[in-house]
Amino acid sequence: MRNKRFRRLGLAVLAAGLVGSALVLAAGTARSAPDRAFAAAMDVTQTCTARVKPRAQVDIQAVVANTGDIQLTIPPGLDGISGNAGTPLDESDDFVPTLASGDVNGNGLLDVGERWTYTGSYTADTVDMTDIVTVDATGPGGEAVSDLAPCETDVIQTPEPGVIVGVQKVSGEVLFKVPGSGKFVPLTGTTEIPVGSQVDTAHGTIKLIAGLGGGRTNSANFNDGLFKIQQAHARNAYMTLLLEGGNFGVCRTSALSAMSVDAKRKRQVRRLWGNGKGRFTTKGRYSSATVRGTHWLVQDRCDGTLTRVLRGIVKVKDFRKHKTISVRAGHTYLAQAP
What we know:
Blueprint: H1 2-32, E1 42-48, E2 51-52, E3 57-66, E4 81-84, E5 98-101, E6 115-123, E7 129-138, E8 144-155, E9 164-177, E10 185-186, E11 190-194, E12 198-213, E13 216-223, E14 226-231, E15 239-243, H2 261-266, E16 268-283, E17 287-301, E18 304-311, E19 313-318, E20 323-328, E21 332-336
Parallel strand pairs: 2-8, 15-16
Antiparallel strand pairs: 1-3, 3-6, 4-7, 5-6, 7-8, 9-10, 9-11, 9-12, 12-13, 12-14, 13-16, 14-15, 16-17, 17-18, 17-19, 18-21, 19-20
């Protein structure tokens, strides 16, 4: 019995020793854990006036957010936050945005999670502008962090023959691609694009505002086709819309073998509707239609280029016959394929 008591006592002492050792080891582990690293980070976003007249004021609003986990100091003046009105090598148009809100506790420090809002303005040039707001800040230990945000402003320009054309989305989805670009982008409102641009109105309607020189313009709506804008750099020049796209391979005999003769002839490849007043020409594969004010269709088919007039008079130039025909409302003309 005595031996058992000593054995139990020995086990208890051993157990207590093991627990004590575990506590020491645990405490030692806790003491040796590395401190968590703190990082400086921020995010700058910007909004600005979307569209203005030349030499008009552009208003900007920039939001600076502390997305790190240490306080940041933004120095005053251009050393902290600065705006550049699109001319990096010209400091004369630089501006300093003013803090409008966000410093909740008024300590002058961009605390973790805070979002400071700045406002400012500059004067637009005569072309589209892209301003850049840049923010430089430092942490308590001298950690440097920077970010910037650009914003584009569309400056209204008068359409000029052979240079730029005014465009406005009327309905649906309208896409355009400027010369030198690799992709089509949506047209969302009113702007100006270079002559030579391609326009896709397969699912929408666009209003084209063509320059005539001397500040004068004329306009018409176009839909249901893909076309390229062409115009000579001359006063009163007509604007030509060249039909593009479509697959003339469907006109091969093998592709049409299962169709009737009449269906083969009338198989549509591409088309474009126009409606309005002005000096516009729509050009298909075998003819072009020139208008002064009408509602008309130019349609490339397997058997030729068809012009249909719903209102007004259209002058159709037949490329193969080398002649021009006046087509009145309610009539059509087919410039036949070879």
